[in-house]
């Protein structure tokens, strides 16, 4: 029962230093967030000891009384939060949730059509090295060359030509709402299933600040750890109870063995929090922050320095900075912002002339900072720090000092020691 610092000082030091890093940097990776202490508590709990293959009330192991309560709560909360008839909260991650969705909807060799990876889609939507690209035939739709948006008439034409069995709506890097009604109409026209992967924008949907894909889609999958602000994991919901059996069996035993009950308990708590008024207020700050960032990065001085944002703005929690006209590439921008104390990731922009390991863009998101407490004043300041850095030739120490003022003002996990 000795503490971690005694048993394994090297790993204890990693935890310590990582807590310090999260406190000292401004986290702006669009897919990241900070979970509340209550979620950390479940994840570090004795529930990690429990095997519970099966589903509540139908387990292959004894002693599941308590974990059954946790999973039933998580299921009910997921259904209620997203207005779904069915939920499965067992997927270990977004990728395994997606593997289960395809497993349930189609057979090996059938065709899927999602947004191409180069234009903001996800690996699990048909990338050739991923299971989705290996098991299924893949057609992809892209963004319009002029608008850099998903134009539904183009998606329709592509769907009519390719006749996929599953159409995928959803993205990892795209700054606009999707037209779920139009996706549904296209799927119906060709007799395809519609699967929406709302991993990125699920928190906005939960807060009622983004159109919901649930009424339009056959199946909706999501991660729980991005805008939704919960533990690293996935879940699946559907309006269609008829798919329940297939989806459950695709998750277990199709994709997974024992569920991670400590994560499922943490998921239940995160879903409870996401149904509350404070969560909605937080998501409003997420959107406001992204909007302020887009505005600052399209101001005349930014445009003059070769900076822009993809589609000229954002409807969601992220901005895709377009550096095609800037001497600074995506990798250099990521490194430069790191020096200033801001963590982002380089990201290809649509029709990117630079190679994928370099790119001409960065993806910048606001969920983690909104969770940290940032509002419009702080996001205005962060946006100016970013614009000033990306314009080039700035005093890095001065920018680092501005970041430090913000991190000092909004302490992360006060009192927590790992
Ligand atoms: N789906 C989308 C749209 C994503 O952006 C991601 C993660 O980035 C995933 C699925 C996969 O989630 P995970 O990393 O939990 O497997």
TrEMBL record:
Please write the reaction equations for the catalytic activity of this protein.
(6R)-5,10-methylene-5,6,7,8-tetrahydrofolate + glycine + H2O = (6S)-5,6,7,8-tetrahydrofolate + L-serine
Modified positions (N6-(pyridoxal phosphate)lysine) in chain numbering = 226
Sorted alphabetically, which PROSITE patterns does this protein's record hold?
A: SHMT
Instruction: Spell out the Gene3D superfamilies in the cross-references.
Output: Aspartate Aminotransferase, domain 1 (3.90.1150.10), Type I PLP-dependent aspartate aminotransferase-like (Major domain) (3.40.640.10)
Query: Which pathway does this chain act in?
Result: One-carbon metabolism; tetrahydrofolate interconversion; Amino-acid biosynthesis; glycine biosynthesis; glycine from L-serine: step 1/1
What GO cellular-component annotations does this UniProt entry give?
A: cytosol
Superkingdom, natural source: Bacteria
Q: Which family does it belong to?
A: Belongs to the SHMT family.
Quaternary organization: Homodimer.
Q: Sum up the protein's function in the record's words.
A: Catalyzes the reversible interconversion of serine and glycine with tetrahydrofolate (THF) serving as the one-carbon carrier. This reaction serves as the major source of one-carbon groups required for the biosynthesis of purines, thymidylate, methionine, and other important biomolecules. Also exhibits THF-independent aldolase activity toward beta-hydroxyamino acids, producing glycine and aldehydes, via a retro-aldol mechanism. Thus, is able to catalyze the cleavage of L-allo-threonine.
What is the protein name stated in its UniProt record? Serine hydroxymethyltransferase
